[in-house]
Amino acid sequence: MENAIERDYEALRLENQLCFPLYACAKEVVRQYRRPLEALDLTYTQYIVMMVLWELGNMTESELGHTVRLDSGTLTPLLKRLEKQGLIVRTHPESRERKLFLSLTEKGTALRERALEVPGQMNGCIDLPAEELMQLKTLLDKALSRMGRTRT
Question: With CB atoms counted within 10 Å of each terminal CB, which end of the chain scores lower, N or C?
């Protein structure tokens, strides 16, 4: 009887969870980004936002939120801090639309040059062969693309 009960609770063991190693690994990678990003005066999440703006240019807050998978409750304070730092400008259109447009300032655009050092500094933060890192990225991208799908 006791073994049957123990089997029932196997699904609750931490070692049997996929979510925990994903969470712990993501947390550790973000922690390792801390030092290189301090030189840019950015948090990891601010860095992600800046990378999107450097790559895609001007966009709305909702487009950015969709791209980086952040809700407005998290994104809005982050954008206000970037604006206070002089890296972005947030503007409302003259029409009555509720959209908020984002654009880089000269300072924000210039920061891109300094950010070029970050990927090299992070090289090797996950100690796996390049082929396995690419496999991991491919699997994570695939999983992430399917996360929003409705289950049937």
Answer: C
**CA 60 – CA 69 distance, rounded (Å):** 14
Largest CA distance in the chain: 71
List the structure tokens of 96. Answer: 């009555």
The first and second tokens of residue 74, run together, are 């998290």
Residue 151: predicted pLDDT = 47
- 106 vs 3, which has greater pLDDT? 106
Model pLDDT, residue 1: 57
Nearest by Cα to 77 from 46, 111, 110, 35: 46
Cα dihedral 48→49→54→60 (10° resolution): 150
Give the domain CATH number at 102.
1.10.10.10
**Enclosing domain of residue 74:** 40-110
**Cα gap 64→45, rounded to integer Å:** 12
Number of domains in the chain: 1
